[in-house]
Amino acid sequence: MKKSLFLYLFVLAAIMNVFTYAYFSKKSESDQQMLTSKLKKANDSTLVLYNKLVDESYFSLAHNENAQEYLGNYEYNKLIADVSNTIMDMNQNAKGNSLVPYEQLSDSKFIINKVKVLNHRWIIADFSDGKTWGEVLIKYFIEGDNKFTFERIDSQLYQPQQSSSEE
């Protein structure tokens, strides 16, 4: 009887080992497939984000070779920085930035927050007084080293958004 008990225990242990091996083998394959699918999804997401970045930067002096050629020897990275700094320096005016065509609507003056140089001739800028926001399209001319003249083409002032606490 002792022999048959050991035989049954041995057979039971062998069967358990076979089932355990089969379980962990399939689990490993399943984990590998899941990892592969997640990696593929991540690569697809990266490609989508890259394509979106390329689309977003299409209208930018940094990615416009024709506009860069038009500038000649003027380094476009320096030009972008110089133009942006010149426009931001205009925020120091007591009445606000002179490129914004709107008078003060509140205690705060309108200042330009963000500038994007589109090409060798145009700029788009975002402005606000802290409550009201807008955008302005600007034409610029290079007069010399760090000397620019600006001409406002058009602007858009958006209605202030009502916050939930004001309602």
From TrEMBL:
Keywords: Membrane, Transmembrane, Transmembrane helix. It comes from the Bacteria. The chain crosses the membrane at residues 6-24. This is Hydrolase. It comes from Flavobacterium agri.
